[in-house]
Design a protein that fits this description.
The chain contains 16 helices and 25 strands. By secondary structure, it is of the alpha/beta class. Among the domains are: 156 residues, Rossmann fold; 61 residues, Luciferase, Domain 3 (Luciferase, domain 3, Roll), CATH 2.30.38; 100 residues, GMP Synthetase, Chain A, domain 3, CATH 3.30.300. The longest helix has 17 residues. The structure holds malonyl-coenzyme A and adenosine monophosphate. The site of malonyl-coenzyme A has 22 residues, from helix 8 and strand 13. Belongs to the ATP-dependent AMP-binding enzyme family. InterPro entries: AMP-bd_C, AMP-bd_C_sf, AMP-binding_CS, AMP-dep_synth/lig_dom, ANL_N_sf. Its EC number is 6.2.1.44.
């Protein structure tokens, strides 16, 4: 039977004994990948998961976790990865909204998850970071020759939640065609071949590590070194055997701080790619000076996969995200009127192409609001196209902080802080941070006489918000600056505290 994405992955296998994944524990060939994703697909099917059912997954990074992703694609389930940092309070919403048939969790988190699962009638199985757990035990009893469920181009492959700038998180529905078309485009633009060996140090619950990295490797028949997390020393040790690295800007900032980064250690590397957040032109220049490599910056988002990329051949221009990818149309519009703007004029970035998602899960109104009538998706990013055709991201039309490549919606943090006794109001902003790019910062007005302090706020947020969303600094003020309409002027606050983290780094 035809399975749009997995058929293409199968066709890309150069040889059954070619290495797909190498970890500290061992190697997985493409033959192993087909066998183990098949066994897990069999286990999922035996549990009663049917095509179109959601499978929610909150597990540590491992080769087996990627086999689980592929197993879902093969049995027609909709893969729903969840950040391992999410608290139970955050998970409850995702589970209630997506109504997964099955939740796969780390055994350490199973008790809490089971309580949530029982409310929504979901099954729970486990998978740990070493590839053990109840799901793998079930897979051991299955045969390796699983026959794929039929899935067409437009069928759902995955749902990834992105927080809403206002209100609830939205599940972005990605089809088999969205994922496959983008993987093939990136493979060709970035010249991936079966000879490539990617250093994979990103998390696998977001677009970057899951789709960009993994699907590009799979559709190239290439291999990857799968690291549990970012560790500069480990990455430098692998470079002589690797050819490519994909990372968020923080990876490059931290690699530059390492004295082991030099031309000799990168001699075997052919390509360094950055995305998910703006790469400072300074970082780009410093990396080129130290290694001789111009980092290739690209631009994407959960809803659209990748939209633009700097060229493989030709100038990789620092501070830009390059050209629209083949098949992607990108235009700039006036945010209020929707009028299409000319070259070099700044406005809302709109995109259209086979990469753009199908809509938000069970939110037809929100979906409608973010598409133009002619099918262009409103990214919420502000940018311009220069006379040479390079796309520049100038800012964000959405109130969003990007810290180390993770998105944090200030509204979500503000609502948690506003609820606390003793708080009058607060504003959460992103302030320039030397390591994370932006640091989540809370500016809080407390009630006169209240004994509320930083520790009380931190304690209260502890089991409500994932750690990366929690403010790096909390500042108490008497009032917040407002414009004549009464709206809090976050730009004034960002300006006021612009040296908060950089000054500190200098002081140390
Ligand atoms: C970890 N912490 C962070 C953080 N990551 N805080 C703010 N922002 C982050 N990104 C916190 C932890 O909670 C912990 O806090 C402390 O920092 C150290 O934790 P750690 O686990 O040791 O962190 P570290 O390994 O240093 O992780 C930093 C990082 C990681 C940059 C390597 O965040 C990372 O891998 N980011 C990549 C995110 C990503 O893949 N984004 C792609 C999204 S897809 P405490 O308080 O407990 O000490 C997308 C589309 C596209 O955007 O275009 O690609
Ligand atoms: P996410 O919702 O996590 O997929 O984040 C997508 C957002 O990350 C985009 O809308 C952009 O704001 C931002 N982003 C991704 N890549 C880049 C980049 N190269 N430069 C600047 N911002 C980026």
């Amino acid at each position: 039977m035809s399975n749009h994405l997995f058929d293409a992955i199968r066709r890309s296998i150069a040889a059954d004994d070619a290495v797909f994944i190498e970890t500290a524990e061992g190697r997985w060939t493409y033959g192993d990948m087909v066998e183990w994703s098949g066994r897990i697909a069999g286990a999922i099917d035996t549990l009663g998961v049917r095509p179109g059912d959601r499978v929610a997954v909150q597990v540590e990074k491992s080769a087996e976790a990627l086999m689980l992703y592929l197993a879902c694609i093969r049995c027609g389930a909709v893969y729903l990865p969840l950040n391992t940092a999410y608290t139970l309070a955050e998970l409850d919403y995702f589970i209630s909204d997506a109504e997964p048939r099955l939740i796969v969790t780390d055994p350490k988190a199973a008790d809490g998850i089971k309580t949530i699962a029982s409310k929504y009638g979901a099954l729970v199985e486990t998978l740990d970071e070493r590839g053990g757990g109840s799901l793998v035990e079930l897979a051991n009893d299955e045969t390796p020759d699983f026959v794929e469920a039929a899935r067409m181009a437009d069928d759902l492959a995955a749902i990834l939640y992105t927080s809403g700038t206002t209100g609830r998180s939205k599940g972005a529905m990605l089809t088999h065609a969205n994922l496959l078309s983008n993987a093939l485009t990136l493979r060709d633009c970035w010249r991936f071949t079966p000879d490539d060996r990617l250093i994979h140090a990103l998390p696998i619950f977001h677009t970057h590590g899951l789709f960009v990295a993994t699907n590009v490797i799979l559709t190239s028949g290439a291999s990857m070194f799968l690291l549990p997390k970012f560790d500069p020393a480990q990455i430098l040790a692998l470079m002589p055997r690797a050819t490519t690295l994909m990372g968020v800007p923080t990876f490059y900032v931290r690699l530059l701080q390492h004295e082991g980064l030099n031309r000799q250690v990168v001699a075997n590397m052919r390509l360094f790619i950055s995305g998910s957040a703006p790469l400072l032109a300074d970082t780009h220049r410093a990396f080129q000076e130290r290694t001789g490599h111009a980092i290739l910056e690209r631009y994407g988002m959960t809803e659209t996969n990748m939209n633009t990329s700097n060229p493989y051949d030709g100038e990789r221009m620092a501070g830009t995200v390059g050209f629209p990818l083949p098949g992607v149309t990108l235009r700039i519009s006036e945010p209020e009127t929707g009028e299409i703007l000319e070259q070099d004029e700044t406005g809302m970035i709109e995109v259209k192409g086979p990469n753009v998602f199908k809509g938000y899960w069970r939110m037809p109104e929100k979906t409608k609001a973010e598409f133009r009538d002619d099918g262009f998706f409103l990214t919420g990013d502000l940018g311009k196209i220069d006379p040479q055709g390079y796309v520049h991201i100038i800012g964000r039309g959405k109130d969003l902080v990007i810290s180390g490549g993770y998105n944090i919606y200030p509204k979500e943090v503000e609502s948690e802080i506003d609820q606390l006794p003793g708080v009058v109001e607060c504003a959460v902003i992103g302030v320039t941070h030397p390591d994370f790019g932006e640091g989540v910062t809370a500016i809080v007005v407390k009630q006169p006489g209240s004994s509320l302090d930083e520790r009380a706020i931190r304690d209260a947020l502890g089991d409500r918000l994932a750690r990366y969303k929690q403010p790096k600094q909390i500042i108490f003020v008497d009032d917040l600056p407002r414009n004549t309409m009464g709206k809090v002027q976050k730009n004034v606050l960002r300006e006021r505290y612009c040296n908060l983290y950089t000054a500190r780094a200098g002081d140390d």
